[in-house]
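Before our next group meeting I need something from you. Please put the record directly below this note.
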Amino acid sequence: GNQEAGEMGLAAVPGRQAAFRQDLSAAVQYARAVGCPRIHLMAGRVPLGADRATVADEMETTFIENLRYAADLLAQEDMIGLVEPINNRITDPRYFLNTPHQAAAILEKVGRPNLKVQLDLFHCQIMDGNLSRNLETYFPLIGHIQIAQVPGRHEPDSPGELNFPYIFELLESLGYSGYVGCEYAPKGDTLEGLGWLRSYWESRGSQHGGTSKAAE
């Protein structure tokens, strides 16, 4: 979509199917070039001036149609499509996809195995909390995890509501082997802000763990 025009994805926006397909084709080319096997298929926003409840069915129908198209295209590239619930209480009041429950229900209707949930724990905590049970319940659908402390959206060891050492251990116990994206705004210097990661790996008995020498 056109961010300058206030768009935040197109996958669930009625009447923009052609633009969605064009942008998806470009995204696949980029992903292929950099060797990235996952693409975030952004749902988009409820149209300005529209009532969410009034347009919800039409937007879901559009979303399902576009996700099926995307899944079939991505399957040819051996890629996975991701949908991310974004909270509408703080971050974006008009974003269409807001909770993991909504995402799971839509993916069930779409019925494609190469579509997964991009679960950002920042958004999930704001909308529903209950992170342990949500991670356990939706684990088979999770294709990517993102993290940030709540409510400041800074480093995991910054003051806030979430106990990330516990969450990381839970993900390990569930068998999560994918990446954990640091979807946060560093409070200061980026490399200094990665101190939480060095401390975590040291607590797990690893000198450097997943951090690079450059970061060290």
Summary: The chain has one domain: 3-187. Residues 211-216 have pLDDT under 50 and may be disordered.
